[in-house]
Write a structure and sequence with these properties.
- The C terminus is likely disordered.
- This protein has 626 residues and is α+β, with helices and mostly antiparallel strands.
- Helix 4 packs parallel to helix 5.
- It has three domains: 109 residues, no CATH class; 249 residues, no CATH class; 208 residues, 2-Layer Sandwich (Alpha-Beta Plaits), CATH 3.30.70.1230.
- The longest helix is centred in the middle third of the chain and has 37 residues.
- InterPro entries: A/G_cyclase, Adenylyl/Guanylyl_Cyclase_3/4, CHASE2, Nucleotide_cyclase.
- This is Adenylate cyclase.
Length: 626
């Protein structure tokens, strides 16, 4: 198993475990830390889906600003509330739901009138649960169904005089951290009792059937209604305030009432008066009246148009979270390139579209859970991969930089583009230059090799700088000398001219450099240069583990022997007539220094003579015999 495969498998296993832990927590309802993100993403989906028409079966009678102004303020006297109920009852609604807490004593006459009004039609009145500040925890051995119900300290119940004439339900809602109602619990409990919610009481009375409670659902008049954890009914808002049909209580009191808005409808009476305090922020409206939120829950129960979120959808959320996490992590491991990033982007787009389509069809799949499951492993794995890749890149860059020092810059670039260069030897013309220090061997014996290494290093640096500046290639440093080619990797018309100019600059720079050396060294060291132009065979030499580029042929031998000619005649440079003619009349050798010749010279190891020119600087040179 390779290191990369092991890293990928480890990342996939850890990512799967992380996603599985979150998925199980979500399925159990223990991931409240995701609620804020889920709420924001739910609001986005609601806004994208847009407003919908509310069911015709529910009507709100609003105790609004107009009602308060005409009746002298808010809260209304019980006699006025009784009058509103009486007027509504005349048109035979299915149920009258009074979303007003009647826990205080009013006037005897008003309370009696209101109690009598409740007898006119089936009526539900509101109670409220008071919750402790501490978070509810499930105790060991406690029934899970019961333990998941909202645990209240007490219930604020309406006065018994009213409760004797109407059903009672708890009006509390479950909100997220931003205060937006997300669900309407169907059951509430204290240590002594369990109470039905206000919307459930209303829906049951409207259907004329008691609800049957099951583990994750309830059945009402033969309809199974899926419930979220804790028997909570998820809320899906229809739109802005007033989307649920609303009429003013003032018009009801005036007798100006649309009978069709009341007859055989569920009529919810509640306050929308400014400053009443019973408002909630929703994605469609920042001040949605609480009575309209309650009406929304009632409509969901009676029409079944609510949004589905229960244990089954939470299980699907968990599976999707695991799959998305493994898929993104796997894609990061598979391709860390543009293709991989595009694949990851495509997967995310497909998931978002599928999530929105499900939501628009009233199936609430979590958007926050898959992100929370997939993002940390993907980011962590991606960051680790980037770090490892950067380390690897730095390692290879260091290796490459180190290896590049063993090859000429021009050849490095050429080999990068043409890796097959010189696998087959090439015959071509080139300018060949040899340079060598004189007296270096004897200096090493007297001063020690360690002391002379710095001198040699400076000499090599000088040669390298001048050769690169003039477009040449150093094929090899030969101890205290170097072999230089002009014509690799490609030959040009300027090879001979560049070689001549390089020879001039080398002689000048080496002379100045020698003058900077300590007198004990400078007095015993010199240099010589030989240059020739002719045919060579350029090739790679070496085996499979190591190769270097070089040139061979008679022209190479001639250039090397010309250093002996320079030393014999006490000049810095001996250059063949072939190179001089090829360089042309504008050659630097004619412009700088003193050039003499040509002279026919016998070259060691060669049967025929060679026409040679001798060159030295104006200062007379620092040539030493060697």
């Amino acid at each position: 198993m390779t290191g990369r495969t092991f890293q990928t498998l480890t990342a996939l296993v850890l990512a799967a475990l992380w996603a599985l832990a979150l998925g199980i927590g979500h399925w159990r309802g223990d991931t409240q830390f995701l609620d804020r993100a889920e709420g924001a993403l739910t609001d986005l989906r609601l806004l994208a889906r847009g407003e919908r028409a509310a069911p015709d079966s529910v009507t709100i009678v609003a105790i609004d600003d107009d009602t308060a102004a005409k009746r002298g303020g808010y809260p209304l006297p019980r006699a006025d509330l009784a009058a509103i109920v009486e007027q509504i009852a005349r048109f035979e609604p299915r149920v009258i739901a009074v979303d007003v807490l009647l826990i205080d004593r009013g006037s005897d006459q008003g309370d009696a009138a209101l109690a009598r009004a409740f007898d006119r039609r089936p009526t539900v009145i509101a109670s409220a649960a008071v919750f402790p500040e501490a978070t509810q925890l499930m105790e060991a051995g406690e029934n899970e169904l019961l333990a998941r119900l909202p645990l209240a300290e007490k219930f604020l119940l309406p006065r018994q005089a009213f409760a004797d004439h109407a059903a009672v339900g708890v009006v509390n809602l479950t909100t997220d951290k931003a205060g937006t109602p997300r669900a309407a619990p169907m059951l509430f409990r204290t240590a002594e009792q369990v109470e039905l919610s206000f919307p459930l009481r209303v829906a049951a009375l409207a259907d004329g059937a008691e609800p049957t409670l099951e583990a994750d659902s309830l059945t009402l008049a033969g309809r199974r209604i899926a419930m979220d954890i804790g028997h909570a009914l998820p809320l899906s808002f229809y739109g802005r305030r007033g989307t649920v049909r609303t009429i003013s209580a003032a018009s009801v009191l005036n007798g100006n009432i649309d009978q069709e808005a009341v007859r055989d409808r569920i009529v919810v009476i509640g306050a929308t008066v400014t400053g009443g305090g019973d408002v909630f922020p929703t994605p469609f409206d920042p001040v949605m009246p609480g009575v309209e939120v309650i009406a929304t829950a009632i409509a969901h129960l009676t029409t079944g148009d609510g949004i589905l979120r229960d244990r089954s959808t939470r299980a699907i959320d968990a599976v999707l979270a695991i799959v998305l996490t493994l898929l993104l992590t796997g894609l990061l491991a598979w391709r860390r390139s543009a293709v991989g990033l595009l694949s990851i982007g495509a997967v995310l787009v497909i998931w978002m579209i599928a999530n929105y389509v499900a939501f628009s069809h009233n199936v609430w799949l979590s958007a926050a859970l898959p992100v929370a499951a997939a993002a940390p492993p993907a980011i962590l794995f991606g960051a680790i991969q980037l770090w490892l890749n950067r380390r690897q890149a730095q390692y290879f860059a260091g290796k490459n930089e180190l290896l590049q020092q063993f090859q000429a810059p021009a050849l490095r670039k050429w080999l990068t583009v043409n890796p097959q260069f010189l696998l087959v030897p090439v015959h071509q013309d080139a300018a060949i230059v040899f340079v060598d220090l004189s007296g270096f061997t004897s200096l090493s014996e007297t001063h020690g090799m360690d002391a002379m290494l710095e001198v040699l290093k400076d000499f090599h640096t000088l040669v390298d700088r001048e050769v690169v500046a003039h477009g040449g290639v150093i094929t090899n440093f030969l101890g205290d000398g170097a072999m230089i080619l002009f014509g690799l990797p490609e030959s040009t018309e300027d090879d001979a001219r560049n070689a001549a100019l390089c020879c001039v600059e080398l002689c000048k720079c080496i002379e100045r450099w020698i003058e900077t050396l300590p007198p004990s060294i400078a007095s015993q060291i010199g240099f010589k240069v030989g240059a020739h132009f002719g045919p060579i065979i350029a090739s790679r030499l070496g085996g499979g583990s190591y190769q270097h580029i070089t040139a061979t042929g008679d022209s190479v031998n001639v250039a090397s022997r010309l250093m002996e000619v320079a030393a014999k005649h006490g000049t810095e440079l001996a250059v063949s007539d072939d190179l001089l003619r090829k360089a042309g009349p504008q050659c630097a050798l004619f412009e700088f220094g003193i050039l003499t010749g040509p002279r026919e010279t016998q070259i060691r190891g060669r049967s025929g003579a060679l026409s040679v020119w001798l060159w030295r600087t104006d200062s007379g040179g620092t040539m030493k015999a060697g």
